[in-house]
Amino acid sequence: MPKLPVISGQEAIRAFKKIGYDADHQTGSHVILRHKEPPHRRLTVPNHKELAKGTLRSLISQVGLTVEEFVKLL
Q1: Does residue 55 lie in a domain region?
Q2: CA-CA distance, 54 to 19, in Å (whole number)?
Q3: Which of 1, 21, 60, 65 has a beta carbon 3.0–4.6 Å from 69's, enabling a disulfide?
Q4: Residue 4 domain-assigned?
């Protein structure tokens, strides 16, 4: 199992944009991303300098990727 990288919220958002997510709006320090294709899944990414490991792992699983696939998007 590969190690999770230590990345910022902006780096995660850039990676998720590569698989079809766009920034919809921001509420406080959380950016809400919305998938372009139906069913327009939503993803809430904290816009922090460093994402917690559990938060990043949760985001990766919500979009249906493995850690290896996510690392390739970075």
Answers
A1: yes
A2: 21
A3: 65
A4: no
